[in-house]
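Run log // design_07
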């Protein structure tokens, strides 16, 4: 199978204790996988490890069949990956919403007028066009989440890592987000506690335990 993400025998310790071990997973090019599990199971840590933000005890990570061995490998891999953090405050950097959503595009040398147009279209798709001129620091929790989703989705990354993307969103926004994610034919790892949401996306459900990722 042609894989976007391959995790082999990952294990990771935190504070001297094993958080998880024997994590194995192959994510195909259009696979959507939901990672569920109790608070503190290590779901966020697992996503962070995939992009090199947490170091492993052992095991290997491959992105598009390239083994990630050093910071340079992870940096290149991050160019293909869109990551929505669990805590939006860790993610937002620009002073206004429209600047936040256009930031990545401008960084990849999209012309300013085009970046503005794409950012506005993405805000409309998530029904938050009215937030465009707002100061990011003053947004509500749910508004911040939608803005970080917009800033990641607008880049059309090859792989999406979404850490509790629906947390804090109202029912209408959850529905909109689920249909957007269901319509994107790309690899996704979605950490969520919301079974209905992951079912609406059509994601395959896996559970993270101390002994690995299991299907039930
Ligand atoms: N930077 C850190 N330093 C030390 N321990 C940490 C750090 N970040 C997380 N932990 C610990 O690692 C464990 C796993 O945390 P993690 O955030 O990965 O859990 P999670 O499965 O995402 O939980 P939740 O569902 O609450 O988001 C927790 O016990 C947490 O306290
Ligand atoms: Mg978490």
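design_07 sequence
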């Amino acid at each position: 199978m042609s894989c976007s993400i391959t995790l082999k025998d990952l294990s990771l310790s935190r504070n001297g204790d094993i958080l998880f071990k024997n994590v194995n997973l192959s994510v195909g090019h259009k696979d959507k996988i939901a990672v569920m599990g109790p608070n503190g199971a290590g779901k966020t840590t697992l996503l962070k490890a995939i992009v090199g933000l947490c170091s492993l005890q052992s095991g290997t990570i491959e992105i598009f069949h390239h083994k990630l061995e050093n910071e340079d490998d992870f940096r290149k891999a991050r160019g293909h990956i869109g990551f929505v953090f669990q805590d939006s405050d860790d993610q937002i950097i620009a002073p206004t919403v429209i600047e936040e959503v256009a930031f990545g595009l401008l960084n990849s040398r999209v012309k300013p007028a085009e970046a503005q147009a794409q950012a506005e279209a993405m805000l409309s798709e998530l029904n938050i066009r009215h937030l465009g001129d707002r100061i990011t620091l003053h947004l509500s929790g749910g508004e911040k989440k939608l803005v970080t989703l917009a800033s990641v989705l607008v880049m059309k990354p090859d792989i999406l890592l979404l850490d509790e993307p629906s947390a804090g969103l109202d029912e209408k926004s959850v529905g909109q987000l689920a249909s957007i994610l269901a319509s994107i034919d790309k690899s996704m790892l979605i950490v969520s506690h919301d079974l209905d949401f992951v079912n609406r996306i059509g994601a395959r459900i896996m559970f993270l335990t101390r002994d690995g990722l299991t299907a039930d």
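Strands lie at 3-14, 17-28, 32-36, 58-63, 66-67, 81-84, 159-163, 187-191, 204-209, 212-214.
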